[in-house]
Amino acid sequence: MSEEVKVDKEHSHVQHVEPYTPQFGTMIPSGSQKFLRTCVLWQIVRFVAINLKMTILILKSHH
Amino acid sequence: MARLVILGAGVAGHTAASFATKWLGDEHEVVVVTPNAKWNWIPSNIWVGVGEMSKEDVTFDLAPVYAKTKADFRQAKAISLNPEGSESNNSPFVTVEYTGQGKEGATENIDYDYIINATGPKLNFGATPGLGEGTTLGEHTVSVCTADHAVHAAEELEKCIEKMKAGERQKFLIGTGHGMCTCQGAAFEYIFNIEHTLQERGVREMADMTWISNESFLGDFGMGGLHFKMGGFVTSSKVFAESLYAERGMDWIIGAHVNKVESGMVTYESLDGTTDTHEFDFAMLIPPFAGAGMKAYAKDGSDITDTVFAPNGMMKVDADYSKATYADWEPSDWPRTLQSPAYPNIFAAGIAFAPPHPISKPMKSANGTPITPTPPRTGMPSAMMGRAVTASICDMMNGKATEPTHTSCMAEMGAACVASAGKGMLSGTAAAMTVFPIVPNFEKYPGTGRDINGTTGEIGLAAHWVKHLLHHAFLWKAQLKPGWALIPE
């Protein structure tokens, strides 16, 4: 009888990755990184930062 | 009074037309020639392609907008250029064939003093057997290149979702449909939107998703890849892109030249020279781009198409087209003024100009088949080129200069790319990337070829909000609503 393996939150989103496949050789976000990607407060900060970066980029690009 | 004729009203052409009418006022005449009655914010076609937006959300009628600006709008396609005029007409002119306004099929010669070629790409579906005929999409795959294509793609996607709900497993194949494609970014965004849609609809587990691309590595994006700071490292876009695919359980096939499309199956040649097949139930494959296919004639009627246009139909401008090998390439090869070297009153902007060479290192399969992404120049670069070229022409038409006064060089400009995964304000995550400059300069920026502070990539909801902001801002700007000129390209 097989015993059910519990997968922790840090790995639950990548349990499909098989060893020695191309997917196995790349970086995989941790649970905390994934949390920050949808954390509204942090993303408001990043929204301002991205807009600032894009504005600088545009200003540097017009000649 | 002089006349500026603008061919095309896409991102580059419409930007040019908007600023030309603003800067030239009533002093000069602006004529816009485009075969389409509607303007399309193409980046949001991705959301149309997954049923999140309608065609009406991403398009609007051009005629009322040009009526506001007093631009002379002709719904027609350009057939040929006579840059020296003809034996019966000393003025340069362009021959157009009407596609609307009740004059369908009628041709007309329109004289010009200056002309901007911003005709965009010809969607060359016919380059790959089975992908389509000429510029017409075939029956085996879908596309998101136009709003109508995207509506069709959403309908086909819905059919697949219904099958999955009924327990039938589906195979999705998204990417490029030829070894010489560009615009990988659009396909990249589309596969993530499909994956997100399948998650939202509860059928992701029933889908096998595969990316297929002519890139020699994931994250090449037709720019030879890029590097940005992430987690204390300067990280390659290869790692960034592979991570996104791995996280979502999607496979990838790279270095692939799709050479045949059949019902439910593509055949492709890989860089190692092998040929393989891949089955699909739903495939969105970007076609290669070609120039609009205009001809050019000298005053005596002789064909000078080869003088004005490159073999792929794109217009020759002030680029160095002599560099044949990757080792010889330099940022200075890239055009700055976008002026035709043969005829100084002809300019090109956006996809219509002929790049001197790819940005990515050219690759050939073991059989000698070229498999190399061509340079991306859609969206932001196109708009910047349209504005710069118009500024130069307006200065010349207003008597302020005799030479172009503004430049827009892909080796000196940056670009921003936002690839969404869904449309939700609180769900899904997008990738926001900036790159500066688009063409790497390894002398100025040793190692990565780009400014590490100006080249960035991150994933999160904020990028979704940026995508929404861009959608509404650019539709506002393109409709020339109050304050439009304050919104930067």
What are the defining features of this structure?
heterodimer; A: 63 residues; mainly alpha; 2 helices; B: 489 residues; alpha/beta; FAD/NAD(P)-binding domain; 4-stranded parallel sheet; 10 helices; globular
Give your account of this protein's structure.
- The complex is a heterodimer of chains A (about 60) and B (about 500).
- Chain A is about 50% helix and about 0% strand.
- Chain A has two helices and no strands.
- The longest helix of chain A has 22 residues, at about 40-60.
- Chain A is elongated, with a radius of gyration of 19 Å.
- The model of chain A has no long low-confidence stretch (mean pLDDT about 85).
- Chain B has a domain at about 5-125 and about 290-365 and about 375-395: FAD/NAD(P)-binding domain (3-Layer(bba) Sandwich).
- Chain B is about 25% helix and about 25% strand.
- Chain B is built from ten helices and 26 strands.
- In chain B, strands 1, 2, 5, 6, 7, 8, 22 and 23 form an eight-stranded mixed β-sheet that branches. Chain B has a four-stranded parallel β-sheet with strand order 16-13-12-20, covered by helices on one side. A three-stranded antiparallel β-sheet of chain B has the order 17-18-19, with no helix packed on it.
- In chain B, helix 6 links the parallel strand 12 (about 170-175) and strand 13 (about 205-210).
- The mean pLDDT of chain B is about 95.
- The chains are: A mainly alpha (about 60), B alpha/beta (about 500).
- The interface of A and B includes residues 27, 37, 38, 46 and 49 of A.
Kindly name the structural category of chain A.
mainly alpha
Whole-number average pLDDT of chain A?
84
CATH class of the domain at 3-123 and 290-365 and 375-397 in chain B: Alpha Beta
Q: Specify the helix fraction band of chain B.
A: 10-25%
Secondary structure tally, helices of chain A = 2
Strand residue percentage of chain A: under 5%
Backbone shape of chain B: globular
Based on CA atoms alone, the radius of gyration of chain B comes out at 22 Å
